[in-house]
Amino acid sequence: VHYLLLSAPWSVLCYYAEELQLRLPLQALPNQTSIWSARLLGRLGIHNVMAQEVPNLPLDHYTCQFKVNKLQWFLGSDKQDTFFSTTQRHQILYEILATTQYGHSKEREVGVDWLLSENVFSAAFPLHDGPFKLPLEEAAPSSLNQRQILFQYWANWRKWYKYQPLDHIRKYFGEKVAFYFAWLGFYTGWLLPAAVVGTLVFVAGIFLMFNDVPAQEICESEEQYRMCPLCKSCPYWQLSSICTTFKAGRLFDHGGTIFFSMFMSLWAVMFLEHWKRMNASLAHRWDCSDFEDIEERPRPQFTATAPMTIINPITGAEEPYFPKRSRHQRILAGSMVVIMMIAIVVMFVVSVILYRVVVAILLASSGYFRFVASASRIASVTGSVVNLFFILILSKIYISLAHFLTKWEMHRTQTKYEDAFIFKVFVFQFVNFYSSPFYVAFFKGKFVGYPGNYVNFLGVRNEECSPGGCLIELAQELLVIMVGKQIINNMQEVVIPKLKCWWQKHRFDSSKKVAKEGESVQAEKAPWEQNYQLLVFEGLFDEYLEMVMQFGFITIFVAACPLAPLFALLNNWVEIRLDAQKLVCDYRRPVAERAQGIGIWFHILEVIAHLAVISNAFLIAFTSDFLPRTYYKHIYDSSLRGYVNFSLAHAPWDFVQQNNTTCRYRAFRDPDGTFSSTYWQLLAIRLAFIIAFEHVVFFIARLIELLVPDIPQSVEIKVKRERYLAKEALAENKV
Q: What's the whole-number average pLDDT of the chain?
């Protein structure tokens, strides 16, 4: 392997700094990093254990766009070696490499990315600032390199409760990476109150479980309620047999759940509103609040494969062009493929439903008492695990397909390419991950018919909810998918990079041994050799996707599982340090990319937050027992005595005659099988509750949006001050 170390002379750096509209300092400021929790603890006089002193804190500056002819007005312009930061030098060099033509003009062979894809070069990367491991002898913190500082104060497991050094991350990895970690840290901080409230609601459920009158009635009923079979070959069963399951269901299904659903809906709105403010502050501090993608160059792959050229009306330069009509046709064709893949996911969901039905029938007719008694529960748990494996396998296949489709659609810029790819994968993953919980929450047990007149699907009787109710099944489904996925992902993030790094080093060392014909490998490798052995950084897409899907789980279905925010919080504490370690230790240094925020992901989070309000309203109204219990309290008995008998219907007379035995089933129906007046009254109450819940939550959410300004006042003042200074410094008459 041969290496080329590139650097750019001062004149080239100046030319491209102006071309790329880089912002450079006019005047230094003390770093005014301000974290709300630090301010709050300071006011209360409580020692802040999360704060830490990180050496070499980057200064804050008033900045403006670089102009060569106004060079003397910029701070530090007399020191050519340090005037441009390392990341700015990387950006300039990458710009030159990505836009330089290496082939014939008519073939439009442009850019280092294309050369990498053609295997002309095996890699192109900026160098890390040195080793990440600390020197053996005790060194002064200020003498550490940037990578060692990040490793010691950020990627260190002992710092799991400390604030992240965001300014150091931005200085070393660029704004795009820094915004991801800023958002992840902010989200994790906001999960803390949600986790505390969720845990309190769960603890309240434990106390309510022991004092629940209907649960006591079921446990003491013995052989009073003989229930109809749950499937074709299932036996009759006693309601008292589900005593434990029914009590467990009360952990999630009580009045506190209503409060928590509303709390989480408003929490999501507050979180997004405050993130907007945080985003505005960071964008200003990091000089990218007016960074727009207008100047973004065409993707090298687009340049190389575009079929024609056109004169750019703004610059007058000839540039590659792909007809809009052809692109729209390709996007339409790609959408058909996405719809087809979604249909495949739905088929898998149906197959899991059929699997549950068949397993329940087989276990119920097996003759083993233990299997017969818990046939429905075993089928449900194993079905959740099978569903998780289907989800993970389909995700891998689809992401490869989405990459191919997005490339084929020929998007001109990297931003448009990423937005199209993210949208495709998110839509698919949304259906993939949420279809099964949606089915359990809103469809399972709703269209089953009644004894003697059951509804069939594909020749199999429709699934009923397990004896304990659908809400406990939904909680179990969520815990299996959410916690199972988190454990698998974290194991992958720990094991796979380490294995890849080991393999890369092994391959590199063995090739060097061959090259040196038996000579021993030199003890100390050159920095570029050490960097070459590291893994290629493939972007933050997977990390964002994992967190956004998690956000969906803790908001859309929170009524079923108040502990979801707690599991998310525990996962994210691990996730921050895992991602930090990968970037600092296992990956080559990425080229610093500028960004104005988290991009399209913010709009996806807003959609999820709105969907969560609707989902929770339907979950409480139709899946939970809250409204039927409230109805019974007000109409019949406030102590809920007799509620169990009230919620069970008698099997129709013709079914009783046919089977020579009577039984009960969960429904509000008359003895002839038609819906009772109670059913229709409850339906009206349920629909009224949905409308009231949505209107109240959306009204409060809109009020929060109006009361919380998107840009903090302090940032607005700084922006005005900066513009004033820029005018003063760069005014023609001053020059």
A: 82
